């Protein structure tokens, strides 16, 4: 009768174990193997280590991962197998380039590293966090595309993506203290803080390659794979919080700002030179919502609003239309809180201009104009006296008139290739004013729009 596999590795008090003279000498060379009873190998105890490793070659990564939970001894032999040249060659796949699939996270190599992350999670379960990270780094050190500057063609590479998926699987369920240790370990390994210091203290665009590397590392390794928004918020907080607010805004733009479709580098002048579209602002808006909505204790509402205010002057003051579009994409709560902050601080003229461009964006994107009117009505209640409210409403009317006159002058000046765009902006602004005032009249006269 075939003997059962004994999966227990707890020693019974006073029980003695006889060393088998039939054991292969190869087993004695494995790390700490003498301290483990051979019975924890079950039926594998009759096999030389070489045969055990051959068997592993025929198992999938998921199966090896399951096998590693049988006993501490089996897990140790799997760790030893991973460290061999044949094991690392088989498990550390490096075919990271020339993947044309639209969703790169669904590729076979990404799924392979997801499974590998689970294998390492189980094999290193009994080690302290610091030792786990050191061991994993030692194993992965030869994968050049996992390094910060390791790949010569980072835009055509899924190496950092695979590394991020691997780390996500490895750290899933870890508490914040352990995850902080992971972030600090990665920073020490890559000198990430020093590299960030370089880009935030340099002229925007003067270190384009380094900006791109920081963006790709932060997005692919730390931010983009989490199922729960609270996890993404945690890692984004790790990245931003050590820095002053002005540097936080620069880093946020580097990580989530608009990039060139040709070379992937940041387009620093995008928000300054002309109106932009939703695709250029969506990443920034999502990051702002992430910090505001997830209830992260490190971020108060005032912190997030100050960050948005600082962001709107990176690298110089944005066009108000782009600022308004960012606020709309960031959601009602952030938009109102941002505008209420201006009202409380007496920045009435700025607030009135912002109302105009909220209406303009609503007109261009076919949003309901009553939203802009109701937002103005809500902000109006922030002012404490009737005089302040009246001044604000007068400022809104004046801001519409000034914006139309400025755009009209631009059209009449005949600025070459921009004539058509200037005329269309003027057309949309006049339409926005008409729609806005129509909704105000509906509200004032208590008439429901048909």
UniProtKB/TrEMBL annotation:
Organism taxonomic ancestry: Eukaryota, Metazoa, Chordata, Craniata, Vertebrata
UniProt-recorded name of the protein: F-box domain-containing protein
Domain of life: Eukaryota
Record domain F-box: where: 41-91
InterPro entries, alphabetized: ARM_FBXO47, F-box-like_dom_sf, F-box_dom, FBXO47
Transmembrane regions listed in the UniProt entry: none
Organism: Bos indicus x Bos taurus
Record PANTHER family: F-BOX ONLY PROTEIN 47
Annotated PROSITE patterns: FBOX
């Amino acid at each position: 009768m075939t003997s059962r596999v004994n999966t227990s590795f707890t020693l019974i008090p006073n029980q003695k174990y006889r060393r088998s003279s039939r054991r292969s000498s190869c087993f004695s060379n494995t790390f700490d193997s003498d301290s483990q009873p051979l019975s924890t190998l079950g039926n594998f105890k009759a096999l030389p280590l070489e045969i055990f490793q051959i068997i592993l070659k025929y198992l999938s990564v998921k199966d090896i991962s399951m096998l590693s939970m049988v006993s501490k001894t089996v897990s140790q032999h799997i760790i030893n197998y991973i460290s061999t040249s044949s094991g690392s060659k088989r498990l550390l796949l490096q075919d990271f380039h020339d993947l044309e699939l639209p969703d790169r996270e669904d590729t076979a190599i990404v799924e392979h590293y997801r499974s590998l992350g689970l294998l390492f999670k189980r094999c290193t379960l009994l080690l302290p966090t610091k030792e786990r990270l050191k061991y994993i780094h030692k194993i992965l050190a030869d994968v050049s595309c996992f390094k910060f500057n390791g790949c010569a063609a980072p835009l055509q590479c899924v190496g950092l993506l695979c590394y991020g998926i691997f780390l996500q699987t490895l750290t899933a369920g870890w508490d914040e203290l352990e995850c902080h240790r992971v972030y600090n370990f990665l920073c020490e390994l890559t000198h990430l803080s020093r590299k960030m210091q370089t880009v935030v203290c340099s002229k925007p665009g003067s270190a384009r390659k380094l900006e791109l590397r920081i963006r790709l590392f932060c997005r692919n390794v730390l931010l983009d794979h989490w199922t729960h928004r609270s996890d993404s918020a945690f890692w984004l907080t790790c990245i931003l919080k050590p820095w002053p607010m002005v540097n936080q805004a620069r880093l946020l733009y580097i990580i989530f700002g608009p990039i060139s479709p040709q070379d992937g580098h940041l387009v620093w002048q995008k928000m300054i030179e002309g109106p932009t579209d939703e695709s250029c602002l969506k990443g920034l808006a999502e990051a702002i919502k992430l910090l505001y909505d997830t209830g992260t204790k490190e971020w108060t509402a005032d912190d997030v609003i100050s960050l948005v205010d600082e962001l709107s002057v990176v690298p110089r003051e944005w066009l108000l239309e782009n600022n308004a579009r960012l606020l709309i994409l960031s959601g009602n709560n952030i938009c109102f809180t941002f505008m209420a902050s201006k009202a409380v601080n007496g920045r009435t003229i700025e607030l009135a201009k912002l109302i105009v461009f909220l209406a303009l964006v609503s007109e261009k994107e076919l949003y309901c104009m009553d939203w802009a009117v109701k937002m103005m009505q809500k902000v109006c209640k922030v002012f404490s006296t009737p005089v302040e409210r009246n001044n604000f409403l007068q400022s809104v009317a004046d801001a519409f008139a000034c914006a139309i006159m400025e755009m009209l002058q631009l059209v009449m000046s005949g600025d070459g290739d921009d004539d058509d765009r200037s005329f269309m902006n003027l057309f949309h602004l006049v339409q926005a004013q008409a729609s806005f005032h129509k909704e105000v009249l509906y509200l004032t006269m208590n008439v429901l729009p048909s």
